[in-house]
Amino acid sequence: MKHIPRKRFGQHFLTDRLIIEGIVDAIAPQAGQAMVEIGPGLAALTQPLVERLGHLTVIELDRDLAQQLRQHPKLTVVESDVLRVDFVHLAEDIGGGRPKIRVVGNLPYNISTPILFHLLDAVDVIEDQHFMLQKEVIDRMVAAPSTSDYGRLSVMLQWRYAMENVLFVPPQSFDPPPRVNSAVVRMVPRADPVALDVRQLSELVRVAFSQRRKLLRHTLGQWLAARDFAGSFDVQRRAEEVPVAEYLALAQQVATKPG
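The structure corresponding to this sequence follows.
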């Protein structure tokens, strides 16, 4: 399959056979599983995946690539911007009686974070996710408190997923090579996540990390005061010093207050 990478789609095609084998082994696809691949591109991952699965659904925005992929008899092609795809409905369509789907992909680096947040809306129908991303994004996703990488992305995703950086991917594994290192992350939805309003948590964490060099009393403290928060929360810390569990507990407490 010949195709000139399109910069506006953030296309970098994986070509390293050893890396491809490593990714497929990490995913460990089993025959009959319902799986969705985001951004199949030139089918570097698609072909070995479908050989093990028997059938695969792919989401591709590039019209030319989508047309070529439709020629494969064991692929169902959804030609769309992934941010417009309703994964709950997609899971119902392709599940084949299975309650959940698996999601994989080499995500476009320019919109990787929006895709991750988009998939949060469908996390209840997802068994697991394996994504290739910019390494620094994965470092932020899996970061522990009191580190420079720990931030809003860490809290929002660690609330709903157990995550692991499973494979390093150097630039020379792609054509054209990106200017950054890449990696593969495994994301497994938590079986019993803390129940809360995701919008409430998102706003709380956004405020907390809006000025991460300052103590929280300058940011989150004022936000809490405006909501007449009477609970106990230490605002004499910086945002990166607060563990995920404390942010989740605070979001629950705030949700019981009006405003």
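Residues 1-10 have pLDDT under 50 and may be disordered.
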